[in-house]
């Protein structure tokens, strides 16, 4: 107000303005501009900017200044609508920003989880590598010690002491010899001397002399057994080595760091000394030695491992050469572990020739037999080829065959000349094997019954375990089986069976390789029975028998069923998914040490069912005594006497009981480190106390 007065507006005019303003509607603000005095105005406003109120009356001035009420309301509504639109745009913008922020947060969380998973995987890998490095370093040290003694850098006595040092002091080896592969022999020898004053716990030094080792060379159950048991022994702190023939068909890519040792050694055969080359390497952290004859290259330069008329000469040469190699290298293992008839001759060779004269007095012999069907009967005079005395051994209490007395039985020699004998069986009891499955060796087994042990085959749980199987879309265990349902859905979708399936559909798997024509007929009956009850079938594999393959092809054409699929090859990933997605796995036999279908089925939550068994057939006989293994007792009493019809009945009528049975089986430990390891460790301990 003071500004207007100073601008030359009269007081009466101001009063009139106030009175009229009070009677009118609110008006929009108007702009009144005043000029400060300047040098020409003498303090008064002048010029074109001066308010010339005197030329207009007050009414006309305010009519021009104020808006009419209806126009003002329209403008207000327009402003409000504009504000609403602006607010709506702001809300949409804020929502968009919020969604982007949430997406960014989710992305960050996913990346965080990926990093956590990678860290866990790296940590597990680190632990696994550490577990593998320790045995690998032990094995590498033993092989380097062999090289040191063969090249003359150390004596056999020093070599023996160093081996004992490595065997008994494995805890600190990882730190002390972490760069062993890069060290020269002189450097390694110096470190061995520095390490020799340390004292660690006792462990067994076991040397397998055998003809198979998976994955280097494996024909039957022996190869996986040697590798599985050896790995289990080393993981438990023992030291294991393996001696094999150097077959030309060996998968030498499986032998890490394979190298030929420059020094050679001689072995006795057929009245002469013959040179041999030594190759060394590491498989799964286990030291492997390959013996290659120099002058008898044809012994192992063949397409097959077994099945030749001179197999006795081939494997007798290898057995004698293995013992000569132990003497030459100064090895003094606690246990010599021999297998089947192919290396059974080591028993009489060891006790008749080597034990008293070659510094092996503290070594003991363990003989493993994977079946008594193959025994190797030969004329007695052939024993002289490897330095044995035929007249001394061709006796009823030694190698003379129980039926064909004019021949010697090499497998029998392994039983008689070993401190302990381990019979491998997944289902049979000791008394059943002696009574019914000894193939003429019952008198020998009965005499040596006290040193007979029974062990089950193990399962490689680093490969066959649904809780860590890399081939499965979802992992699961006995404690949480939700992932098995996901695996079933994935299996049915992959094979195009999902459109005919429901949540209650029973999936029956079948893997065949040793099937006979009779098995095919049983398979057809099983299929007809289960398909009528809504089950879906998945078949995988091929047979080695052409007639069986032909019968399978006819069976496939005959059924033309939308609820069955045939996979005519072994697909590793699909095989794992098949075990995980099936409710039942059909087996041609529960004695299956090669494919191990029953063990894998139980571990993956599928019931193994014998296709030869139905409700009207006689059940499997079972010796309910303490001479059976724990695992075989469980398998035989729980699954072996259950027909397919009974399994389908339990699944449909009592699902809760069925689930309990399946989870109980999944919780069992069938690995090599379980009962199989316990039996062998007990055998080693027992014979070392003899």
TrEMBL record:
It comes from the Eukaryota. Keywords: Glycosyltransferase, Starch biosynthesis, Transferase. Its EC number is 2.4.1.21. GO terms for molecular function: alpha-1,4-glucan glucosyltransferase (ADP-glucose donor) activity. The keyword Transferase applies. Pathway: Glycan biosynthesis; starch biosynthesis. Residues 205-445 form the Starch synthase catalytic domain. Gene3D superfamilies: Glycogen Phosphorylase B. The keyword Glycosyltransferase applies. GO terms for biological process: starch biosynthetic process. It holds the Pfam family Glyco_transf_5. It catalyses: [(1->4)-alpha-D-glucosyl](n) + ADP-alpha-D-glucose = [(1->4)-alpha-D-glucosyl](n+1) + ADP + H(+). This is starch synthase.
